[in-house]
Amino acid sequence: MLPIEVGIVHRIFGEARSADGERLYELVTCALEPGEVRTDTDFTVCVAHGPEALAEADTVVVPASGADYDRAERTAGRLSAELAEALGRIRPGTRIASICTGAFVLAAAGLLDGRRATTHWRSVDDFRRLFPHVELDADVLYTDEGDVLTAAGVASGIDLCLHMVRCDHGAAVANDVARRTVVPPHREGGQAQYIRRPMPEPQVSSTGRARAWALEHLDRPVTLRELAACEAMSVRTFTRRFREEVGISPLQWLTQQRIERARQLLEETELTVDRIAAEAGFGTAASLRQHLQSALGVSPRMYRNTFRGVGAGPGSGAGADSELAPEAPTGPALGARARASVKGRAGARAGSRGGGGLVA
Asked: For residue range 41-86, what is the model confidence (pLDDT) as tens digits?
């Protein structure tokens, strides 16, 4: 096994806390046989649980394995009898995720057929050859197909786990975990993998100052010319450098940040939707509704009700988004799925069963 990939799961889910400091997930690591498991380092890991733990899981995360075993599994394209039997213990409806080449296990189990998935960029040729029925996207950090999720590898496993925490408990909890872990709070799954590119020119300015300035001015229109001026670059050079560093265009990034700001305000404040739209830079409630529906599949009212409860202050009342007509859910419902690397706490889990999942 690769200790860093198992460690990511324990770190991210293990740091998730409620407002009262209560752990939001219970984590269990299991192997085909309890005992010492070899790693790609000079130490082993002692795993106390066998595959029986899978029968209790609300979420199962399959990390990559060591190079020799991993390569054998990839060239075979099928599960061993022991692994197939272990995965057969997983209950229907359990959320299943993979990190890096753990996607080969999910694909061999038939869980990715007809679905979008990703894996480490070095393994895409093997994956496409073995699993032609999977819609492989080799250029993204992670994918979310509702109950099945995949991450490209290692650091993107952090992004995927944070994404699941955000879906389960909201942006505030996920951002707190990110701060504790000292990592960016949110990278969209569609951001490009960091595949080798030509070295940048020496002494080239970063776009970090422009991004920091933009975050302080999300409530007003932000132009490319202003962002470029922060770095003393031409608009053309800034746009190119921004895409090289961040993986998406400045406009896409700004939209993502505004959505994140709106989510935070919907979760943590009682501001009206019109005020939140203005604070996040969307201008009108109608514009906020359109962007939130496109990104998350829910309206501002539905999002707030999920994380704050119906009637949680004036911002969630009937007149809170007067420009928005009352509606039934029109996209994938956003559910507070309190699921973990193996088991989420019963109270939150009970409230999540009727919520469904967020498809980002």
From this structure: 999 999 999 999 999 999 999 998 765 445 555 557 889 999 999 9
pTM of the model: 0.67
Q: Which helix (H) or strand (E) holds 350?
A: helix 346-352
Rounded Cα–Cα distance for residues 83 and 91 (Å): 15
Residue identified by tokens 């960016």 is: 184
Task: Report the length, in residues, of the chain.
Answer: 360
The 10 Å Cβ neighbour count of residue 153 is: 27
> In Å, what is the CA distance from 340 to each residue of 169, 181, 334?
11, 17, 17
144 half-sphere exposure, CB direction, 13 A CA radius: 22
Taking alpha carbons only, the member of 61, 308, 58, 281 closest to residue 169 is 308
- For the chain, the helix, strand and coil percentages under 3-state DSSP, each to the nearest 5: 45, 10, 45
- DSSP per residue over 67-85, as a string? HHHHHHHHHH-S--HHHHH
How far is residue 75's CA from residue 232's CA, in Å, rounded to a whole number? 50
